[in-house]
């Protein structure tokens, strides 16, 4: 599938190798409970990533709220599929070590997202 090839190439762009990466699609409520339980955040979120990477091999579980994707697509006037692709690659970038908690690291994350989405358009 195109998305598998795309994400493998995103990982390769960062000189790493794909391992076992699982996407789990769930509801807002389910992900909010996980956010509270594991991160002590009492908010909705679109993605939570659990990193099991070892060395250059990238592995992890990426939980994505389909409810958030739908809402964000409407809010940002984006197609559902485009919003889903953005959140999927956002999770993979977290596995690659990108962070988005502070301004400088958030800019690096956004730049990497743009590069990844541009790559997808050219597959």
Describe this structure in words.
With 123 residues, the chain is an alpha+beta fold. The protein has one domain: Collagenase (Catalytic Domain), CATH 3.40.390.30. The protein has five helices and three strands, in the order αβαββααα. The protein has helices at 2-13, 28-39, 66-75, 80-95, 103-121, and strands spanning 17-26, 47-51, 57-65. Strands 1-3-2 form a three-stranded mixed beta sheet, sandwiched between helices. Helix 3 crosses helix 4 (80-95) and helix 4 crosses helix 5. The longest helix has 19 residues, at 103-121. It starts with a helix and ends with a helix.
Write down the overall mean pLDDT: 95
The profile of the biggest β sheet is: 3 strands, mixed
Give the ordered list of helices and strands: HEHEEHHH
Shape: globular
The total of helices stands at 5
The low-confidence parts are none
CATH homologous superfamily title: Metalloproteases ("zincins"), catalytic domain
How do the strands line up in the largest sheet? 1-3-2
Share of helix among residues? 55-70%
**CATH C-level category:** Alpha Beta
Number of strands: 3
CATH architecture: 3-Layer(aba) Sandwich
| End-to-end C-alpha gap | 11 Å
Q: What fold name stands as the CATH topology?
A: Collagenase (Catalytic Domain)
Strand content: 15-25%
Gyration radius, rounded: 14 Å
Structural class: alpha+beta
């Amino acid at each position: 599938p195109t998305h598998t090839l795309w994400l493998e190439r995103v990982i390769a762009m960062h000189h790493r190798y794909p391992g076992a990466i699982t996407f789990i699609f769930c509801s807002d409520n389910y992900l909010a409970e996980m956010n509270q339980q594991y991160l002590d955040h009492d908010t909705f979120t679109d993605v939570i990533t659990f990193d099991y990477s070892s060395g250059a091999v990238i592995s992890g579980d990426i939980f994505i709220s389909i409810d958030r994707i739908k809402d964000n697509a409407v809010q940002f006037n984006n197609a559902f599929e485009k919003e889903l692709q953005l959140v999927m690659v956002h999770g993979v970038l977290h596995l690659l070590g990108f962070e988005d908690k502070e301004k400088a690291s958030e800019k690096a994350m956004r730049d990497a997202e743009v590069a990844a989405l541009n790559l997808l358009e050219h597959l």
